[in-house]
Amino acid sequence: VKAARFGDEQAELIVTSIFKSSNHSKGNHLKGDLFSLTNCDDESHTTTTCGRYMQPIGQNTWVVFSEKNADKYLSWIVYITETFYQLLKALYDECCKNCTSPGSKCNGKVCPKTCPTLQKGKQPVTHKDECKSIADCPFTRPTLARYGFVFQSAYNLSGANDVQGKRTCADLCNALKRVVSDVKDENDVLAKLVYETIPEFIWKIREPFSYLVLALWLLSLLYLLHIMVIRLDLLHIKSHLHSPSSHRIAAQSLLAAGRVNKLGRVFYLQP
After folding, report:
1. What pLDDT digit, counting tens, does each position of 29-68 carry?
2. What are phi and psi of 55, to 5 degrees?
3. Which terminus of the chain, N or C, has fewer Cβ atoms within 10 Å?
4. pLDDT class for 1, splitting at 50, 70, 90?
5. How is the chain split into domains, by residue range?
6. DSSP run (H or E) holding 84
7. Residue 104 Ramachandran class (φ > 0 left, ψ -120 to 50 alpha, else beta)
8. Among 43, 38, 42, 55, which Cα is nearest to 175's?
9. Backbone φ/ψ region at 239: left (φ over 0), alpha (ψ -120 to 50), beta
10. 149 DSSP 8-state letter
11. Cα–Cα distance measured from residue 143 to residue 92, given in angstroms and rounded to the nearest whole number
12. According to DSSP H, which parts of 116-197 are helical?
């Protein structure tokens, strides 16, 4: 980051805000923290606000070669984060469409009426054994794979180990909705990074060059206006003949045989 700002010691690009904490009661977890899609603090009360939904297909490869690609991370963050944000939006739209598609296994009565997640104000908010897990939805796995993800833990999402880890398609849609939200001061952690933090970082790099180009253009414009209003002679763009009598030489005398050779030695008049 400092090298990108030409050694500026005050340069910074803080991206940790999108991965702050896996605990619901801390940081930006309820404001769209990406931990809500990959991890969850089991000791939290409102557990359905997050889950072990997904991880990148190439995560293991990324871990192995992370040190070798460290110099590329900055450009990836600056130029790919917006694309990542748009793809998460597309994933959210497609997942929600699958959840609400008539006739799909992900639609309909996923949870019984007695499920705590359907009861407002009831704690702890966890699913029951009768609830249908997102791991049983035939649409979710291929949809995630289309966007470069796999289940982070289908075993955990199915609730086979602990019912507190069970998640439904609706839970994933709610988590994605918070992540891709652009509502200011509510769920805008990723959106703020894309539309505020990164553009400000890029502008700080380009700022001195932008002002330099602006100054040069203003100087050129000032010079143009100057020569349009004031005679060029006042700018010391004068003839090479400084004697007043030189401007009164007859044209015929310049064509005399004795002067033709002298004119031939004036090299800047030759093509």
Report:
1. 556 677 778 877 655 545 667 788 888 888 777 767 767 7
2. -155, 155
3. C
4. low
5. 2-205
6. helix 73-100
7. beta
8. 38
9. beta
10. E
11. 10
12. 140-146, 154-157, 169-180, 189-192
